[in-house]
């Protein structure tokens, strides 16, 4: 199996796969001359397969499924002497996945694929994984995700539309987002902007233009960065981890700006109070000087 791309906008992913099915059909009558001496199987032409009973399996959550073709379908049918039929075909599929972005960009998307019979319930058809079930080519590398080990299940489920219990095969694909891209593009730049805003604490209190320019520039940079990041994923109604990070960065810069305003106001009030105290002290000294002159004048007259 090969996974080509994961589309977060449409919430689906595309995969190329070799699908293999095996089943036994006791109704088949096999002439002995079909097999060569020493062989226990024979490859049938496609015209034979069209006249045989076939499992009507389908992917429940698929958007598009098609068998690869060039001049003919890439499929083969093998018949064994014990009346086992093995069908193999190369297929392309686009599978829907209900993605959640609560922890974006540290998220892990779990995308199940469900296989079920369309018309045969569990009393008539049971589905089982054979061997490892699903294998992914070792060379597969995705640009933004790491593929975690697959989880396979065999279960039953009631289908309302078909009014019955049906055997199901499930495989869970888990895509872990690689954090390296976001460390370079998001977390490192926003952290540097916040640290840059802290340099305003070392500026003189009277350097109002420098402080305001620095802090407002940092705040606008974060807003622009946040706006650009929102285009990478679809708009969702809930809060993501990235939203909390960017909100924390903007609050830090805004707090630095608020701290400057508060300190400036308090410093102005402090200076006004000190000026008032100095004025009162000066008035008190003048008043005491006048009283002293008056006392001396009385003593002199006396």
UniProtKB/TrEMBL annotation:
Q: Which PROSITE patterns match?
A: NEUROTR_ION_CHANNEL (PS00236)
Has keyword Ion transport? yes
Localized where? Answer: Cell membrane; Membrane
Instruction: List residues of the Neurotransmitter-gated ion-channel ligand-binding domain.
Output: 3-177
Q: Which UniProt keywords apply?
A: Cell membrane, Ion channel, Ion transport, Membrane, Signal, Transmembrane, Transmembrane helix, Transport
The membrane topology term of the UniProt record is: Multi-pass membrane protein
Q: Where is this protein chiefly located?
A: membrane
A Pfam family that the UniProt record links to this protein: Neur_chan_LBD
Q: Can you tell me where the transmembrane regions are?
A: 183-202, 208-229, 241-263
Is Translocase tagged as a keyword? no
Q: Which residues form the Neurotransmitter-gated ion-channel transmembrane domain?
A: 187-285
Q: Which Gene3D superfamilies match?
A: Neurotransmitter-gated ion-channel ligand-binding domain, Neurotransmitter-gated ion-channel transmembrane domain
Sorted alphabetically, which CDD domains does this protein's record hold?
LGIC_ECD_anion (cd18987), LGIC_TM_anion (cd19049)
**InterPro entries, per this entry?**
GABAA/Glycine_rcpt, Neur_chan_lig-bd, Neur_chan_lig-bd_sf, Neur_channel, Neuro-gated_channel_TM_sf, Neuro_actylchol_rec, Neurotrans-gated_channel_TM, Neurotransmitter_ion_chnl_CS
The UniProt entry's sequence similarity note says: Belongs to the ligand-gated ion channel (TC 1.A.9) family.
Top-rank lineage group of the source organism:
Eukaryota
Give a GO cellular-component term. Answer: plasma membrane
The protein's name:
Uncharacterized protein
A GO molecular function for this record? GABA-A receptor activity
